[in-house]
Amino acid sequence: FGESNGMWTYYRTPNSDALAEEAIDKCRYARFIPAVYHGKPAAAVVSGTMIFVVIDGKPHLRIFLNQEAEHLKKGDDFICPQEVFWWGDNFEGFAYPSDHMLSGTVCVKLDTDATGKLLASKITYESPLGSGFGKAVMDRINKVTFLPGYLRGKPVACSTTSQILFRGRGTNTYWKTD
């Protein structure tokens, strides 16, 4: 715990491949304060947004632990709820809906309280539509444990949209938040 176990990017803007590869390379060697759940270290899926701009000839890189447009526009310190895992966890991942389906995407709106408890969830997007990936997520979403969202350093009740990517049988299901 406290180490990166992998990083990937998606929804890149044009000509951002070099920046994405540099960020991935640097995260391989980064050390993090471990997530803690009920007083014990836990593994966590941490999602965020990198924004790189050049203003008056000077580069600016900002990294946010959320992807909610309203918070990114304000540049505030909102951290969206993060999925955590620990030994003995009852969440075993999302199941593929069938043997012939190799990839799919599901976006789900999550409402959590200030402790990270999931209050409500609703599918907002599924691709391929009607493929069963949405049902696969909804069948197990209530078993996912979340660290709460934070704003100005305090836990908050909030809504966030998370994206779950199914990529190839036998590979990990990627959990993304946006």
Characterize the overall form.
Answer: globular
Helix-strand string: HEEEEHEEEHEEEEE
How many helices? The count is 3
Q: What is the rounded Rg?
A: 17 Å
The overall strand count is 12
Strand fraction: 35-45%
Largest sheet: 4 strands, antiparallel
Average pLDDT figure: 81
Oligomer: single chain
Strands in their spatial order, largest beta sheet: 1-2-5-8
Gap between N and C termini: 24 Å
What ranges have pLDDT less than 50 throughout 5 or more consecutive residues? none
Helix content: 10-25%
Structural class: alpha+beta
Can you characterise this structure?
This protein is an alpha+beta fold and 178 residues long. It is 15% helix and 39% strand. The strands form four sheets. A four-stranded antiparallel sheet has the order 1-2-5-8, with no helix packed on it. A four-stranded antiparallel sheet has the order 7-6-11-12, covered by helices on one side. Strands 3-4 form a two-stranded antiparallel ribbon. The longest helix has 13 residues. The chain is globular, with a radius of gyration of 17 Å. The mean pLDDT is 81.
Please describe the structure with a list of short key phrases separated by commas or semicolons.
four-stranded antiparallel sheet, 178 residues, 12 strands, alpha+beta
